[in-house]
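Lecture 7 notes: from sequence to structure.

We start with a single chain of 621 residues. Read the sequence below before looking at the structure.
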Amino acid sequence: MPSYPFHTTREDLRIPLPDGTRLAARLWRPVGAEPGPALLEYSGDRLTDRTAAEDARRHPWYAGHGYTAVRVDTRGHGNSEGTPGEPGGDQELADGAEVAAWLALRPWCNGRLGLLGVGTAGTTALRLAARTPDTVGAVVTACPEGGHRLGGALLAADLHTRLTALVADAALPPDPRHVGDAWRAAWLARLESLRPPVDDWLTAGESTVPVSVPALAVAGWGDPSCSFVLRLLAESPTARALIGPWPHGLPEAALPDTLRWWDHWLRGVDTGALKEPALRSWLSTRWTGDEAWPSPDVREIHYGLDGPLRTAGTAAHDRYVQVRSPQHTGLNAGGYVPHGRPADRPPDQREEDGRSVCFDSQPLPEPVELLGAPTVRLRLRLRLREDTAPAQVTVRLCAVGPDGTSELVTRGVLAADGPDAEVELAACARTVPAGHRLRLALSSVYWPWVWPPAEDTGFGVDPSRSTLSLPVRHLAADVGAPTVTFEDPDLPEPLDIHLTEPLTARPEHLTVHDIGRHEWRTELSPADDGTRTHPDGLVRDEHTVTAYRVLTGAPLSAQARTDRTVRLERPDIGWDVTVQTRTQLRCDAGHFLSVVQLRALEAGSVVFTREWQHRVPRDRP
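Now the structure, written as tokens:
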């Protein structure tokens, strides 16, 4: 164990709620410290197995620096009592407010709390802070997750995968090592209560999240949370942001900055946290700092699609270039949520470019540094009738090298229902070298990121009335500015978790083209597949496969499916449970159709099975 200002202790306990439900919690406390602030991480991700490795690194480190670090499982998850609800829903937020109030009254707490969350829990932390502003003094949110739509179009790449994981995690039982013989009755109650939130997810619009307390937001470029993080930064004068070359999650490199954040807002210590630039970001090869956001060093540069950018296509006599893409356009999109694996990165985009209408610039005479969210304003001609859905406009921005290699910079999607369309692309930070060309690629499909429109009509675009606006950072913006540096945290040794990988590991990303059937199939396997044996003897084995299929010329042929199996075992006491889940999504001209299946086994025997079918009106593409 590294040397910290305080020795630490760990304690498992139960936090009571007003209705008698008790939530499982794990506390790391500094020995001999005066009553001080507590840091709460409140999540449904099973603290005794799924997040045990991360918890054992960062929370003792916080405790060693004088904070009581608290990790709590939400109602009906892990070893907490009760039955699960929707993540971020009213019940979860109400419970979280009670947990915060309970912690604030402990003798070792001075009544002030900081909230920490990653992914969905990062969004929950912001919403919970809005409910408890008198108790919560600051938030650290990492890769906060938004809604299930992208520019109004329904996500395909993430929705059913997250839904399958949600059902599987909520269906897992408490651990008898922690709750005793009560585990089985609690498990059956969880299984009976489960209701996948398919209807809510398929019909929900764009989500908004309040920012009511000082927030430090952390993300990695390429994560879908980046645009949200920059909006948070622009809206809150007490917010700061770190966006680096990281996969999804809270990187260990950011922990010292989170500690300085807590010290400033919860202890009143002048750590210089607010003297840092509002945005510190990784820009291709180096760290940069911008004192405000929007940054005065970033200006919009406009490129017309009939001048600085030109297409190889020819406009019709009425000026419009037709965009109508094959249904497998988007197969080389890369991972929607990057986890640091090679297959997460989008490959060379030349195949995608060939399925799109492209507008290219001349070779750049000098480097161009992009920082922020590009926008594309298009004059469209849509073949819409009163009974048809909006057209899907997909925009990719690529950097094309002298050898023809096309590298994806960023992209955006819009469900367009009128002639004037503005597409906001995902926020990015990228240096495009001199000699490269900028390429703007338009397509009418982006599968399997978003569901294709019900009708394959495409759209027309008038290049003479369309522009690309780029957020260009001044090349001399860093001259004379302090160097952005990060302190390396001295964290505890990792938990001794033994990973047994499958003997025949599946490819991370496999695409098959069945030429005779005109069919494209894609299969994805996550990095966390395998068997993990924890130091206390718990064995967690999980396997997930996500598959997509589409016929080249048939938008209603698109289908998505995720299969997930999680097995928990304690060989020393003969405990062996398995949860198998499957989510399938498809659509017809007027509806999204889903089937969610759940099967639970104890020692190989089925104890529960259920299927939910949903038919949700398709009022959006």
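The longest strand covers residues 554-570. Keep this in mind for problem set 3.
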